[in-house]
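Listing S7. Sequence submitted for prediction.
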Amino acid sequence: MSQAVTRSATPSGPGLLASLDPLLREWLPRQRWFAGKGRPVTGFSLVAATELLPSDGKLGLYHLLLRAHQPLAPVQGQVPHPGDCYQLLIGVREALPPRLAPALIGHVHDGPLAGRTVYEALYDPRPAEVLLEALRTQARIGGLRFERRDEIRTDLVPRVVTAEQSNSSVVYGDTFILKLLRRVLPGVNPDLELPLALAREGCPRVPPPTAWMTAEVAEESYVLGVLQPFVQGAADGWELALRQLAKGEDFSSQARALGRATAEVHTALARALPTVTLAHLQLQSLVDGMTERLAAAAQAVPALGPYVPGLRSAFEALADLSAEGHTWTAQRIHGDLHLGQCLRSPSGRWSLIDFEGEPAKPLAERRMAQPVVRDVAGMLRSFDYAAHSAGGPPAPGWAAACRAAYCSGYAEVSGSDPRTDPVLLRAYETDKAVYEVLYEARNRPDWLPVPLSAVRRLAAGAEAEAR
């Protein structure tokens, strides 16, 4: 075992956070994975700090769990939000070599690191090697815990994935990929829980966890990262769809195969974990949530206003069916399924990745049993996004063909075609489109016409169904 993973956690001193504070206030909000964009950071509090490499040497390395405090409008009866907790890996050097310039956080002027340069350590091979060695040796360093199911080689060269994503990833020698969660919450994280359950079921559609990293802090456990096999040469579904769209090629055969893969995962999850029946009270609660999200989105995005009655009728139709005695089965699902969460290997095999669900939602909500059609609706919306994003005019016929093929492929494996329950499917697709309108209005206004076009279609369809 190397010196890096046998060290015990070293107290970092009360001045560490104070010395990093002004640098992090500038750097943290610029990161793609920072969830609090648009609101100033008013301060930080340290949840945990662990020294992985001594900071008085040529290269130091700190692992921090840091809570960022940002002002929120007070809501009567609600407990004030304590601030999001982020996982940071801070490298410490006298000066950065040119290859690490993109990783710069800043130069420290005060405190225990005065005169040193701090940076995002994942860009540096040595700190990335420290993490892999800790996983390989199942190290215990302060509150950090490293576990593994399978053997890990020692000769794997790391490289950080520079593509924008909501977390951070390091690839080790085209053999493994380590996904490090950035915004972390205490509790059971589905990004580890569900792939482990699927691995026990022998489901080949999801890369099985090789190892994982957690933290124990004040009797609470945080999942920090998961190491999985790297699918070498794979293309994600979004990139593949856009390439084929740009060339005017059909994607429906891929969509059908992706539908089969989704159904295989859903079937395995239903075997591995409990299912429940949603009766009237549960469905009414579900519909109430959809209706509330619609009202909030319409208040924030005035362009949504004219379509609210039609959209609301999609939810009301589901409530009416429930009141008549219809029930639905709910189970664990992916939770945030779209083309970017799917990988196609060079052999043509589809895999599903990233099971953490929607990061903005509480863990308890992400772990709730839900109808599988929620995942289906997410994928249908993703085909629509691709059709509007290929650089030319929208390709509605392309999206319609993909949607039909995906549902057909799903039915081939599951025995149930999502289109045979149109009220449930429309309600979930409407809920997803409303979410997209709010997201795009806040983050990518130029993309707002994409979900608004779906809103128009869904509102008109719901009104026609009601008539």
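Caption to Listing S7: primary sequence and predicted structure tokens for the chain studied. The longest strand covers residues 43-53. The chain has 13 helices and 18 strands.
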